[in-house]
Amino acid sequence: MSQGGAAGRGTAKPQDQGWAWVVLMAAVVLQGLTLGFPCCIGVFFTDLQHEFQASNSETSWFPSIMVAVLHGGGPLCSLLVKRFGCRFAVMLGGLLSGLGMVSSSFCKSISQLYLTAGFITGLGSCFSFQAGVTVLGYYFVRWRTLANAVASTGVSLGFTGWPLLSQYLLDEMGWRNTFLIFGGILLNCCVCGAIMRPIGPLPQPPKPGEEPGSRAEEAQLSNGASPPHATLQQHTRRTTCFQVLQKYLAFDIFCQNKGYQIYTIGVTWMMMGFALPHVYLVPYAIHNGVEERRAALLIAVIGLINIFIRPLTGLLSGHRVFTGRRIYLFSLAVLLCGLSNFICVISAEFSVLILYCVILSIAMSGVGALTFQVLMDVVEMDRFSSALGLFTILESITLLLGPPLTGLLVDITSDFRYVFYTSSFFLISAALFMGLSFCALEKKTKLREASKVPLNNPSRYQYSETPSDPQAESQPPPVVMYITSI
């Protein structure tokens, strides 16, 4: 009763107080353990090559699979959350992540690493991270934006800590014992999950045209409870293959919404080159005579700068000055990422590589802070979850293919500089494609408005940042909400 009264008075709801902030701290740790973890794999790249006598292409499949599964497992995680709840998904993810790394310490071939550290650990990290983000939507209402911004700092902390810890443990006890220790560290995701006690969103009256049972089903999501019998029967009748695909992989939005279509294609193409520096920067530095400890420090520098720049970028991009222009800020950040790679081509001296990491980190902060803000701008929020499903699936494919194909190019040419040439090509071309396409789309929309030609479906052509529901910010999250981070 007090919850409903607080909601009616417009004051901070109980979800925004007390235990919610403990859950937020757990989410910070969770993001550092999951999203931050793949950045340290480059530290082990050379040792794994020597251990298994593998080529650059063969070795790079291992981190590629991990990152691709982490990003692309969103639809599967959302089904798991809907059936069993966020707490269960986070703890299951922690068990899988720990099991994957412990198993990796006993691998006898590089292909076994693809399954253990790549697929199993990647899937576990996906479950833990995305369910951890989802539960924040239930613990926070008034402070939801702040909570997500604070939680994202865990990624930067992971980027800073994991490479340094990896290099220290690698020097002291070798990669097998290090992977074994990593398995124990990742089990702490289970502790974070245990902190996330189930809580349901406040009951609210159904919107016009909304089915009476939908709110009840949503209220039970984070608790992992089964819907009422009548709602379950209704849900079963509607669960067809086509409807499931439409719900979690929004092909209809892709075909109808030009802004979403351009943005999805652009980001998918961008991902072919975005992850390459993370995988190959440390091997490139070691190959050019940089000490291993100093090479690992390069990734830590990227993470350290991200801690400060990423939240600042997110706050600045939310200013009214940038309303309707965030896609151009995003394209500019991607363009800067691509141009910064030429610094590595000029020289591989440690001081030059530090300069490269500083510039790259600033640009990456913009990409990471804006990726999902722009996606929210180009699709309606009631379809955001399904639009995100297709978005993450497509980007995970290019994340999977980019490093191995580039590694094959390095094997053929024996020149690591092709890593940065390739990365620059994909990033610069993607930035130009998105920026110019949205500029043309905006001009087309203005011409239509000027000629007063009515549009049958305005959302199909317009790039708009006006929410369809003026109360969207105060509503609970969609029934299934899964988010990735770059």
UniProtKB/TrEMBL annotation:
The keyword Transmembrane helix applies. Residues 203-233, 458-477 are annotated as: Disordered. It holds the Pfam family MFS_1. GO terms for molecular function: monocarboxylic acid transmembrane transporter activity. It is found in: Membrane. One of its GO terms (cellular component) is basolateral plasma membrane. The keyword Oxidoreductase does not apply. Residues 220-233, 458-474 have a biased composition (Polar residues). Residues 208-218 have a biased composition (Basic and acidic residues). It comes from the Eukaryota. InterPro entries: MFS, MFS_dom, MFS_trans_sf, Proton-linked_MCT. It is a multi-pass membrane protein. This is MOT6 protein. It comes from Scytalopus superciliaris.
